[in-house]
């Protein structure tokens, strides 16, 4: 395979908030001229407290904000957005007081006349800053593999990716590597045009701009879906897997790869590339038998045992084997136990959303992500002695 030429191009997805019609039209024309994707445009100011969620939902990474039409409202919006994305203030010429106020609120760039040169200059300056700040340490790669089909590996992968993003990892990539079941797009109700076969086909010319067109944003996470056609087969070589994982690590703080089984994950080389291998099983006899065989395959040289984390999913102590018995059967201690929360997971599946974080399963995934990232649980404030007395019956 010839060497790949990848320019570090930042793919901008702007949120445009501009109630001023003339400025709005000119800015739209400039962004179109610069071939910049516009996932969200508003001709009115959103209410206070809503704009940050709007940015996350649409995977925007920059905001052009009219700072002059309603100065006070615009100042509040800049304060809300500045910690998350760069804010470019659109302002009239020669208004030094307004520029100073926007600076204090967190705006990092200013455009008085939305021309191609002015806006292009903003993108170029911010891209240099972003490259210096973002691309430092390689991201973590997690392979999620079921010990037996139906153990909930895809459910864990999808919810884990969203939880890692909520915990502060940014950006996060979720890859559906199971071409037969294609569960990720089904669970999140995504319509994806491209998949891993397209990545393989265009690999020699892959760069950030092309990559952004192959993924779909969902719940703050980039998703590379599996093909809709279950008969399609993508042959991933170990060399390609190595190059692909290196490409992902450079661009994402966390990558969650959903794979169909241990053999597929090992043969293509993803287990050797992973930082952590999450082998998902349940406490049912058939699942434990299949998982034991998967462990034997990994032990035969398909992966580093130190990377392996056994995840006991849908755990119900009343039914099936207890944790100690699972440990004995597999000669391996479960790294984490995920609570059985059937009704909540089914409701989330029908809605095409991640499981609510306050649910039992959601809390289990939060605890797992904290373990993987070596973060401690949030410290709860202890009640005062007076409150304890008042709460006594």
Summarize this structure briefly.
The chain is an alpha/beta fold and 393 residues long.
Task: Write up what this structure looks like.
With 393 residues, this protein is an alpha/beta fold. It folds into two domains: 14-134, 3-Layer(aba) Sandwich (Rossmann fold), CATH 3.40.50; 140-372, P-loop containing nucleotide triphosphate hydrolases (Rossmann fold, 3-Layer(aba) Sandwich), CATH 3.40.50. Helix content is 44%, strand content 16%. It has 17 helices and 13 strands. It has helices at residues 21-33, 51-57, 71-81, 96-105, 116-134, 153-166, 183-188, 196-201, 208-214, 238-251, 262-267, 270-273, 285-302, 323-330, 342-351, 360-372, 385-391; strands at residues 14-17, 40-42, 62-66, 87-90, 109-111, 140-146, 172-176, 216-218, 221-224, 254-258, 276-281, 308-315, 336-339. The strands form two sheets. It has an eight-stranded mixed β-sheet with strand order 8-9-7-10-6-11-12-13, sandwiched between helices. β8 and β9 (221-224) form a beta hairpin. α3 packs parallel to α4 (96-105) and α6 (153-166) crosses α16 (360-372).
Strands, total number = 13
Q: How many DSSP helices?
A: 17
Instruction: Catalogue the unreliable spans.
Output: 1-7, 132-136, 378-393
Q: What characterizes the major β-sheet? A: 8 strands, mixed
CATH topology annotation of the largest domain: Rossmann fold
Question: Which characteristics define this entry?
Answer:
single chain; 393 residues; alpha/beta; Rossmann fold; 2 domains; 8-stranded mixed β-sheet; 5-stranded parallel β-sheet; 17 helices; 16% strand; elongated; disordered N terminus; disordered C terminus
């Amino acid at each position: 395979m010839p060497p790949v030429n990848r320019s570090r191009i930042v793919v901008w997805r702007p949120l445009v908030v501009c109630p001023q019609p003339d400025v709005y039209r000119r800015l739209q024309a400039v962004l179109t001229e610069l071939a910049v994707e516009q996932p969200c445009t508003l001709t009115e100011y959103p209410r206070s407290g809503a704009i940050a969620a709007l940015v996350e939902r649409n995977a925007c990474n920059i905001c052009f904000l009219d700072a002059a039409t309603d100065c006070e409202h615009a100042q509040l919006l800049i304060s809300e957005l500045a910690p998350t994305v760069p804010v470019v203030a659109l302002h009239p010429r020669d208004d030094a007081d307004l520029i100073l106020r926007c600076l204090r609120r967190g705006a990092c760039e200013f455009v008085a006349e939305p021309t191609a040169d002015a806006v292009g200059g903003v993108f170029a300056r911010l891209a240099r800053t972003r490259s210096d700040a973002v691309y430092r340490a390689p991201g973590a790669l997690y392979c999620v593999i079921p010990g037996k089909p139906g153990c909930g590996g895809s459910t864990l992968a999808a919810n884990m990716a969203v939880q890692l993003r909520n915990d502060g990892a940014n950006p996060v990539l979720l890859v559906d590597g199971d071409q037969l079941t294609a569960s990720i797009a089904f669970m999140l109700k995504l319509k994806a045009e491209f998949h891993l076969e397209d990545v393989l086909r265009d690999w020699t010319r892959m760069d950030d701009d092309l990559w952004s067109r192959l993924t779909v944003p969902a719940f703050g996470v980039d998703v590379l879906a599996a093909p809709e056609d279950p008969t399609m087969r993508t042959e991933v070589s170990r060399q390609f897997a190595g190059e692909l994982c290196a490409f992902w690590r450079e661009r994402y703080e966390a990558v969650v790869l959903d794979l169909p089984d241990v053999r597929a994950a090992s043969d293509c080389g993803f287990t050797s590339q992973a930082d952590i291998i999450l082998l998902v099983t349940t406490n049912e006899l058939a699942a434990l038998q299949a998982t034991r065989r998967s462990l034997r395959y990994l032990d035969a040289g398909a992966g580093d045992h130190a990377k392996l984390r056994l995840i006991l999913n849908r755990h119900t102590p009343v039914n099936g084997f207890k944790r100690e018995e699972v440990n004995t059967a597999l000669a391996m201690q479960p790294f984490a136990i995920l609570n059985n929360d059937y009704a909540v997971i089914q409701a989330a599946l029908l809605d095409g959303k991640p499981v609510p974080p306050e649910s039992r399963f959601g809390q289990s995934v939060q605890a797992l992500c904290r373990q993987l990232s070596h973060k401690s649980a949030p410290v709860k404030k202890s009640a005062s002695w007076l409150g304890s007395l008042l709460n006594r019956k």
